[in-house]
Amino acid sequence: LMTFDILAFIVKLAMLLIIRDRPKGMKRAKNKQGECIKVFDLLRGVGKIICNKQSWLIALYGALMYAPTTALNQWTASYLPLLKGYSEEKAAWLVSVMFIGWIFGSPTFGAISDYIGRRKFTLYISSLFTFCLAILILYIPQNSYLTYNLLYFAFGFFTCGFIPSFSIIREQHEPEYSGSALGFMNMINSLGPCISPLLVGILLDSLWTGAVMNHQKIYSINDYQIALSVTTLFLFLALLVLPFIKETF
Hints:
Strand content: under 5%
Shape: globular
Distance between the termini: 44 Å
Helix content: over 70%
Oligomer: single chain
Strand order of the largest sheet: 1-2
């Protein structure tokens, strides 16, 4: 943990030294009266974002797409050892593989979206493939550990195809309010990962038969599969929301 703390400190220090608010020589943006943008203008922009139906649809889509990642992150180490007999270390490694997929998928989908000049195409690809991969991971036992590594990598890779939705909400609003739009998106988007593990836990407790081992509740494979159906439900709802989001071209 200390190693990660040191790395985090180095990254933050680099951000402080390298990142600038604006290019060198460029003065702060001013309004027609020659003053900095007033707080009233900022609040008006935030109000426009909140009152825009597209803002809510885009943010909701992002929350629904991000939620399954957290659910798998939290419950894989409990579900797969029971299903396949893997050690907790092997199951935990699959979670790492999923986030390695994120590392490669995020820039890939962003580049594709920019290249074709479309945002929603990548969102559809992401939603459809992630939905299918979740079904393969949760409900169709695989023959080998390598297969699970490939599935978890692909899940991470395709899940982050929803990232261009951040570009959509930014492009839906005036440039001066892009930061507020992204902040709104990130706030709503973060609710999904908060809710999905909680729902899985509630469902598991409702299915619990009272079995205990080493002072820990024991759940069956069927219990996990029913509870983790929350992930596929979220992904299905994301597909239903997607047609109502406007393409920004």
